[in-house]
Design a protein that fits this description.
Layout: E1 27-28, H1 40-43, H2 45-49, H3 62-72, E2 79-82, H4 84-96, E3 100-104, H5 110-117, E4 121-125, E5 144-148, H6 160-168, E6 175-178, E7 199-204, E8 217-221, H7 223-236, H8 243-254, H9 256-279, E9 282-284, E10 291-296, H10 301-310, E11 313-314, E12 326-330, H11 334-348
Helix pairs in contact: 3-8, 4-5, 4-7, 9-11
The chain binds 4'-deoxy-4'-aminopyridoxal-5'-phosphate.
Protein backbone atom coordinates (compact mmCIF):
# COMPACT_ATOMS: atom_id res chain seq x y z
CA UNK A 1 0.00 0.00 0.00
CA UNK A 2 1.41 3.43 -0.87
CA UNK A 3 1.11 6.47 1.36
CA UNK A 4 -1.13 7.96 -1.34
CA UNK A 5 -3.99 5.47 -1.06
CA UNK A 6 -7.09 7.39 0.04
CA UNK A 7 -7.48 6.73 3.74
CA UNK A 8 -11.10 5.65 3.32
CA UNK A 9 -9.81 2.68 1.29
CA UNK A 10 -7.10 1.50 3.65
CA UNK A 11 -9.17 -1.46 4.86
CA UNK A 12 -10.62 -2.37 1.47
CA UNK A 13 -10.26 -6.06 0.69
CA UNK A 14 -10.61 -6.62 -3.05
CA UNK A 15 -12.80 -9.31 -4.58
CA UNK A 16 -10.87 -12.50 -5.37
CA UNK A 17 -11.93 -13.71 -8.81
CA UNK A 18 -11.90 -17.46 -9.47
CA UNK A 19 -8.62 -18.66 -10.95
CA UNK A 20 -8.28 -18.38 -14.74
CA UNK A 21 -5.59 -20.96 -15.47
CA UNK A 22 -4.37 -22.20 -18.82
CA UNK A 23 -7.57 -23.77 -20.10
CA UNK A 24 -5.84 -26.82 -21.57
CA UNK A 25 -4.34 -27.79 -18.22
CA UNK A 26 -7.55 -28.10 -16.20
CA UNK A 27 -11.18 -29.02 -16.52
CA UNK A 28 -12.28 -25.57 -15.50
CA UNK A 29 -15.45 -25.68 -13.39
CA UNK A 30 -14.71 -22.85 -10.97
CA UNK A 31 -16.31 -19.67 -12.35
CA UNK A 32 -19.71 -20.75 -13.71
CA UNK A 33 -18.98 -20.06 -17.34
CA UNK A 34 -21.01 -21.72 -20.07
CA UNK A 35 -19.07 -24.78 -21.29
CA UNK A 36 -20.15 -24.09 -24.87
CA UNK A 37 -18.55 -21.34 -26.97
CA UNK A 38 -20.69 -18.62 -28.56
CA UNK A 39 -22.43 -19.58 -31.84
CA UNK A 40 -20.29 -19.06 -34.96
CA UNK A 41 -22.86 -16.53 -36.25
CA UNK A 42 -22.07 -14.51 -33.13
CA UNK A 43 -18.27 -14.52 -33.35
CA UNK A 44 -18.44 -13.88 -37.11
CA UNK A 45 -19.61 -10.31 -36.43
CA UNK A 46 -16.20 -9.47 -35.02
CA UNK A 47 -14.65 -9.28 -38.49
CA UNK A 48 -17.44 -6.95 -39.65
CA UNK A 49 -17.05 -4.61 -36.70
CA UNK A 50 -13.26 -4.57 -36.28
CA UNK A 51 -12.57 -2.09 -39.15
CA UNK A 52 -14.64 0.52 -37.24
CA UNK A 53 -12.55 0.34 -34.10
CA UNK A 54 -10.92 3.72 -34.79
CA UNK A 55 -14.30 5.24 -33.83
CA UNK A 56 -15.87 5.35 -30.38
CA UNK A 57 -18.66 2.92 -29.69
CA UNK A 58 -22.30 3.95 -29.37
CA UNK A 59 -22.77 5.11 -25.75
CA UNK A 60 -26.49 4.32 -25.97
CA UNK A 61 -25.98 0.76 -27.34
CA UNK A 62 -28.87 1.41 -29.77
CA UNK A 63 -28.74 -1.77 -31.89
CA UNK A 64 -28.22 -3.97 -28.86
CA UNK A 65 -31.00 -2.23 -26.95
CA UNK A 66 -33.41 -2.68 -29.83
CA UNK A 67 -32.68 -6.41 -30.27
CA UNK A 68 -32.79 -7.02 -26.51
CA UNK A 69 -35.98 -5.05 -25.88
CA UNK A 70 -37.81 -6.71 -28.78
CA UNK A 71 -36.78 -10.12 -27.49
CA UNK A 72 -37.92 -9.48 -23.91
CA UNK A 73 -40.89 -7.22 -24.81
CA UNK A 74 -39.67 -4.28 -22.79
CA UNK A 75 -39.43 -0.60 -23.66
CA UNK A 76 -36.03 0.67 -24.60
CA UNK A 77 -36.22 3.23 -21.79
CA UNK A 78 -36.37 0.31 -19.35
CA UNK A 79 -32.89 -1.05 -19.87
CA UNK A 80 -29.22 -0.17 -19.52
CA UNK A 81 -26.09 -2.13 -20.50
CA UNK A 82 -22.69 -2.20 -18.86
CA UNK A 83 -19.30 -3.85 -18.83
CA UNK A 84 -20.52 -7.04 -17.14
CA UNK A 85 -23.25 -7.17 -14.53
CA UNK A 86 -20.52 -6.36 -12.00
CA UNK A 87 -20.48 -2.85 -13.47
CA UNK A 88 -24.28 -2.69 -13.36
CA UNK A 89 -24.13 -3.64 -9.67
CA UNK A 90 -21.50 -0.95 -9.04
CA UNK A 91 -23.70 1.62 -10.81
CA UNK A 92 -26.65 0.54 -8.64
CA UNK A 93 -24.57 1.06 -5.49
CA UNK A 94 -23.46 4.50 -6.68
CA UNK A 95 -26.95 5.48 -7.74
CA UNK A 96 -29.29 4.15 -5.06
CA UNK A 97 -27.48 3.36 -1.80
CA UNK A 98 -27.63 5.99 0.93
CA UNK A 99 -25.84 4.63 3.99
CA UNK A 100 -26.31 0.93 4.04
CA UNK A 101 -27.13 -1.99 1.86
CA UNK A 102 -28.70 -5.31 2.86
CA UNK A 103 -27.94 -8.69 1.34
CA UNK A 104 -27.72 -12.35 2.40
CA UNK A 105 -24.59 -13.13 4.44
CA UNK A 106 -23.85 -15.97 2.04
CA UNK A 107 -24.11 -14.64 -1.48
CA UNK A 108 -22.08 -13.13 -4.28
CA UNK A 109 -18.79 -11.77 -2.86
CA UNK A 110 -18.94 -8.48 -4.72
CA UNK A 111 -21.93 -7.27 -2.66
CA UNK A 112 -19.66 -6.85 0.33
CA UNK A 113 -16.67 -5.56 -1.64
CA UNK A 114 -18.79 -2.82 -3.23
CA UNK A 115 -20.22 -1.92 0.19
CA UNK A 116 -16.66 -1.29 1.36
CA UNK A 117 -15.57 0.44 -1.85
CA UNK A 118 -18.51 2.86 -1.66
CA UNK A 119 -18.14 3.30 2.13
CA UNK A 120 -21.54 1.84 2.98
CA UNK A 121 -22.57 -0.28 5.95
CA UNK A 122 -23.10 -3.86 4.88
CA UNK A 123 -26.17 -5.28 6.63
CA UNK A 124 -25.63 -9.00 6.17
CA UNK A 125 -28.67 -11.18 6.75
CA UNK A 126 -27.98 -14.82 7.69
CA UNK A 127 -29.52 -17.56 5.61
CA UNK A 128 -31.82 -20.09 7.29
CA UNK A 129 -30.26 -23.33 8.60
CA UNK A 130 -31.09 -24.94 5.26
CA UNK A 131 -29.35 -22.10 3.37
CA UNK A 132 -32.50 -20.34 2.19
CA UNK A 133 -33.29 -16.65 1.93
CA UNK A 134 -36.25 -16.09 4.28
CA UNK A 135 -38.43 -13.26 2.95
CA UNK A 136 -39.44 -12.24 6.49
CA UNK A 137 -35.87 -11.12 7.18
CA UNK A 138 -36.14 -8.56 4.39
CA UNK A 139 -39.37 -6.75 5.32
CA UNK A 140 -39.26 -3.00 6.11
CA UNK A 141 -35.48 -2.73 6.15
CA UNK A 142 -35.13 0.92 5.20
CA UNK A 143 -32.05 0.08 3.10
CA UNK A 144 -31.25 -0.80 -0.48
CA UNK A 145 -31.59 -4.59 -0.78
CA UNK A 146 -29.72 -6.97 -3.08
CA UNK A 147 -30.66 -10.60 -3.52
CA UNK A 148 -29.23 -13.01 -6.08
CA UNK A 149 -31.93 -15.29 -7.46
CA UNK A 150 -30.85 -18.07 -7.79
CA UNK A 151 -28.47 -17.31 -4.97
CA UNK A 152 -24.76 -17.97 -5.37
CA UNK A 153 -23.03 -20.12 -4.33
CA UNK A 154 -26.01 -22.11 -3.01
CA UNK A 155 -28.00 -22.27 -6.28
CA UNK A 156 -31.27 -22.03 -4.33
CA UNK A 157 -34.09 -19.87 -5.67
CA UNK A 158 -36.72 -17.80 -3.94
CA UNK A 159 -40.20 -17.51 -5.40
CA UNK A 160 -41.55 -14.51 -7.29
CA UNK A 161 -44.30 -14.13 -4.70
CA UNK A 162 -41.68 -13.89 -1.91
CA UNK A 163 -39.87 -11.23 -3.95
CA UNK A 164 -43.15 -9.34 -4.40
CA UNK A 165 -43.66 -9.40 -0.63
CA UNK A 166 -40.17 -7.94 -0.18
CA UNK A 167 -40.88 -5.26 -2.81
CA UNK A 168 -44.20 -4.36 -1.19
CA UNK A 169 -42.69 -3.96 2.28
CA UNK A 170 -39.80 -1.81 1.04
CA UNK A 171 -41.62 0.75 -1.07
CA UNK A 172 -39.19 3.54 -0.20
CA UNK A 173 -36.10 1.60 -1.17
CA UNK A 174 -34.73 -0.03 -4.26
CA UNK A 175 -34.66 -3.82 -4.32
CA UNK A 176 -32.08 -5.26 -6.73
CA UNK A 177 -32.61 -8.82 -7.90
CA UNK A 178 -29.44 -10.24 -9.44
CA UNK A 179 -30.52 -12.81 -12.01
CA UNK A 180 -27.08 -13.89 -13.23
CA UNK A 181 -28.24 -17.53 -13.23
CA UNK A 182 -32.00 -17.12 -13.75
CA UNK A 183 -32.06 -18.58 -17.27
CA UNK A 184 -31.13 -21.96 -15.78
CA UNK A 185 -34.34 -22.13 -13.73
CA UNK A 186 -36.79 -20.00 -15.65
CA UNK A 187 -37.76 -17.87 -12.63
CA UNK A 188 -37.38 -14.22 -13.57
CA UNK A 189 -38.62 -10.90 -12.21
CA UNK A 190 -38.29 -9.13 -15.56
CA UNK A 191 -42.09 -8.90 -15.90
CA UNK A 192 -42.40 -7.36 -12.44
CA UNK A 193 -40.66 -4.13 -13.43
CA UNK A 194 -43.94 -2.98 -14.99
CA UNK A 195 -45.63 -3.27 -11.59
CA UNK A 196 -42.90 -2.16 -9.17
CA UNK A 197 -41.12 1.17 -9.42
CA UNK A 198 -38.57 0.07 -6.79
CA UNK A 199 -37.30 -3.04 -8.60
CA UNK A 200 -34.04 -3.33 -10.56
CA UNK A 201 -33.43 -6.66 -12.28
CA UNK A 202 -29.77 -7.30 -13.08
CA UNK A 203 -28.68 -9.84 -15.67
CA UNK A 204 -25.64 -10.93 -17.61
CA UNK A 205 -24.55 -12.40 -20.94
CA UNK A 206 -21.71 -14.19 -19.10
CA UNK A 207 -23.52 -17.39 -18.20
CA UNK A 208 -26.52 -18.44 -20.29
CA UNK A 209 -25.40 -16.40 -23.31
CA UNK A 210 -21.88 -17.86 -23.57
CA UNK A 211 -20.14 -14.44 -23.49
CA UNK A 212 -18.27 -14.17 -20.16
CA UNK A 213 -15.12 -12.89 -21.88
CA UNK A 214 -17.00 -10.15 -23.75
CA UNK A 215 -18.25 -8.55 -20.48
CA UNK A 216 -21.89 -7.60 -21.00
CA UNK A 217 -24.45 -7.06 -18.27
CA UNK A 218 -27.78 -5.26 -18.08
CA UNK A 219 -30.32 -3.68 -15.79
CA UNK A 220 -34.06 -3.76 -16.40
CA UNK A 221 -36.23 -1.39 -14.37
CA UNK A 222 -38.89 1.28 -14.76
CA UNK A 223 -37.93 4.29 -16.85
CA UNK A 224 -37.21 6.57 -13.87
CA UNK A 225 -34.76 4.14 -12.24
CA UNK A 226 -32.97 3.55 -15.56
CA UNK A 227 -32.76 7.29 -16.07
CA UNK A 228 -31.04 7.57 -12.66
CA UNK A 229 -28.62 4.78 -13.55
CA UNK A 230 -27.87 6.40 -16.91
CA UNK A 231 -27.14 9.71 -15.22
CA UNK A 232 -24.46 8.00 -13.11
CA UNK A 233 -23.17 5.84 -15.98
CA UNK A 234 -22.76 8.93 -18.17
CA UNK A 235 -20.98 10.72 -15.33
CA UNK A 236 -18.58 7.83 -14.92
CA UNK A 237 -17.95 6.09 -18.26
CA UNK A 238 -20.31 6.77 -21.19
CA UNK A 239 -18.48 4.32 -23.49
CA UNK A 240 -18.68 1.47 -21.03
CA UNK A 241 -19.70 -1.26 -23.51
CA UNK A 242 -17.15 -1.55 -26.28
CA UNK A 243 -18.10 -1.88 -29.95
CA UNK A 244 -17.14 -5.56 -30.24
CA UNK A 245 -19.19 -6.51 -27.22
CA UNK A 246 -22.22 -4.55 -28.41
CA UNK A 247 -22.09 -6.43 -31.73
CA UNK A 248 -21.60 -9.80 -30.02
CA UNK A 249 -24.52 -9.16 -27.69
CA UNK A 250 -26.82 -8.10 -30.53
CA UNK A 251 -25.89 -11.17 -32.57
CA UNK A 252 -26.36 -13.48 -29.59
CA UNK A 253 -29.95 -12.31 -29.07
CA UNK A 254 -30.65 -13.38 -32.65
CA UNK A 255 -29.34 -16.93 -32.08
CA UNK A 256 -32.29 -17.99 -29.99
CA UNK A 257 -32.23 -21.68 -30.82
CA UNK A 258 -28.54 -21.94 -29.92
CA UNK A 259 -29.16 -20.05 -26.65
CA UNK A 260 -32.02 -22.32 -25.63
CA UNK A 261 -30.18 -25.45 -26.69
CA UNK A 262 -27.11 -24.63 -24.58
CA UNK A 263 -29.29 -23.93 -21.55
CA UNK A 264 -31.17 -27.16 -21.98
CA UNK A 265 -27.93 -29.17 -22.30
CA UNK A 266 -26.60 -27.59 -19.10
CA UNK A 267 -29.84 -28.29 -17.20
CA UNK A 268 -29.92 -31.92 -18.36
CA UNK A 269 -26.30 -32.37 -17.34
CA UNK A 270 -26.91 -30.68 -13.99
CA UNK A 271 -29.71 -33.11 -13.20
CA UNK A 272 -27.62 -36.12 -14.31
CA UNK A 273 -24.65 -34.94 -12.26
CA UNK A 274 -26.77 -34.46 -9.12
CA UNK A 275 -27.94 -38.08 -9.49
CA UNK A 276 -24.30 -39.20 -9.70
CA UNK A 277 -23.45 -37.18 -6.61
CA UNK A 278 -26.40 -38.75 -4.75
CA UNK A 279 -25.06 -42.22 -5.56
CA UNK A 280 -21.67 -41.25 -4.11
CA UNK A 281 -23.22 -40.08 -0.85
CA UNK A 282 -22.97 -36.33 -1.44
CA UNK A 283 -25.65 -33.93 -0.20
CA UNK A 284 -26.38 -31.36 -2.87
CA UNK A 285 -28.60 -28.30 -2.60
CA UNK A 286 -31.39 -28.01 -5.16
CA UNK A 287 -29.87 -25.97 -7.96
CA UNK A 288 -31.62 -23.50 -10.22
CA UNK A 289 -28.25 -22.44 -11.66
CA UNK A 290 -25.45 -23.76 -13.88
CA UNK A 291 -23.54 -25.06 -10.85
CA UNK A 292 -24.14 -27.31 -7.88
CA UNK A 293 -23.22 -26.75 -4.25
CA UNK A 294 -22.40 -30.04 -2.65
CA UNK A 295 -20.88 -31.61 0.47
CA UNK A 296 -19.74 -35.04 1.63
CA UNK A 297 -19.66 -36.15 5.26
CA UNK A 298 -16.23 -37.79 4.96
CA UNK A 299 -14.32 -34.83 3.47
CA UNK A 300 -14.01 -31.13 4.13
CA UNK A 301 -14.66 -28.76 1.24
CA UNK A 302 -10.97 -27.93 1.14
CA UNK A 303 -10.01 -31.61 0.88
CA UNK A 304 -12.44 -32.12 -1.97
CA UNK A 305 -11.14 -29.00 -3.71
CA UNK A 306 -7.51 -30.16 -3.36
CA UNK A 307 -8.16 -33.75 -4.37
CA UNK A 308 -10.00 -32.59 -7.48
CA UNK A 309 -7.27 -30.10 -8.24
CA UNK A 310 -4.68 -32.87 -8.00
CA UNK A 311 -6.70 -34.57 -10.73
CA UNK A 312 -6.66 -31.40 -12.86
CA UNK A 313 -10.23 -30.45 -12.09
CA UNK A 314 -10.76 -26.92 -10.81
CA UNK A 315 -13.83 -26.18 -8.67
CA UNK A 316 -14.52 -23.44 -6.08
CA UNK A 317 -14.22 -23.67 -2.34
CA UNK A 318 -15.22 -20.81 -0.02
CA UNK A 319 -13.33 -20.58 3.22
CA UNK A 320 -16.31 -19.26 5.13
CA UNK A 321 -18.01 -20.60 8.22
CA UNK A 322 -21.12 -22.72 7.55
CA UNK A 323 -20.19 -23.40 3.92
CA UNK A 324 -16.67 -24.61 4.59
CA UNK A 325 -17.57 -28.20 3.85
CA UNK A 326 -19.07 -27.46 0.47
CA UNK A 327 -17.61 -27.14 -2.99
CA UNK A 328 -19.26 -25.36 -5.88
CA UNK A 329 -18.95 -27.20 -9.16
CA UNK A 330 -19.89 -25.52 -12.44
CA UNK A 331 -21.76 -27.76 -14.87
CA UNK A 332 -19.58 -28.51 -17.88
CA UNK A 333 -20.08 -30.68 -20.94
CA UNK A 334 -21.23 -34.31 -20.48
CA UNK A 335 -17.64 -35.46 -21.16
CA UNK A 336 -16.24 -33.13 -18.50
CA UNK A 337 -18.85 -34.18 -15.95
CA UNK A 338 -18.14 -37.83 -16.63
CA UNK A 339 -14.51 -37.16 -15.68
CA UNK A 340 -15.57 -35.27 -12.57
CA UNK A 341 -17.85 -38.13 -11.50
CA UNK A 342 -15.03 -40.60 -12.07
CA UNK A 343 -12.59 -38.48 -10.05
CA UNK A 344 -15.08 -38.11 -7.20
CA UNK A 345 -15.72 -41.84 -7.20
CA UNK A 346 -11.96 -42.44 -6.83
CA UNK A 347 -11.77 -39.90 -4.01
CA UNK A 348 -14.75 -41.21 -2.07
CA UNK A 349 -14.30 -44.96 -2.43
N1 LIG B 1 -23.89 -11.82 -9.99
C1 LIG B 1 -23.60 -13.07 -9.59
C2 LIG B 1 -24.50 -13.74 -8.61
C3 LIG B 1 -22.47 -13.72 -10.10
O1 LIG B 1 -22.15 -14.95 -9.69
C4 LIG B 1 -21.65 -13.03 -11.04
C5 LIG B 1 -20.41 -13.65 -11.65
N2 LIG B 1 -19.74 -14.55 -11.04
C6 LIG B 1 -22.00 -11.75 -11.40
C7 LIG B 1 -23.13 -11.16 -10.88
C8 LIG B 1 -21.16 -10.93 -12.34
O2 LIG B 1 -21.16 -11.44 -13.62
P1 LIG B 1 -20.61 -10.61 -14.86
O3 LIG B 1 -19.88 -9.41 -14.33
O4 LIG B 1 -19.73 -11.56 -15.58
O5 LIG B 1 -21.83 -10.22 -15.65
Amino acid sequence: MSKYLASRLSNLVAYTPGEQPDKDKYIKLNTNENPYPPAKEVTDVLTEVAPNLHLYCDPACKALTEAFCNYYSINKEETLFANGSDEILALCYMTFCEQSVAFPSISYGFYEVYSDLFCLDAYKIPLTADFRVDKNDYFNLDKTIIIANPNAPTGLTISLSDIEDILNTNKDNVVIIDEAYADFCDVSCKELVKAYDNLVVVGTFSKSRNLAGARLGYAIACEALIEDLKRVKNSFNPYNVNMLTQALGTASIKQDEYFKNCISKVITERNNFIRQLDKLGFSTLTSGANFVFTTHCKFSGEELYNKLRDRKILVRHFNKESINNFVRITIGTPEQMKQVSKALEEIIL
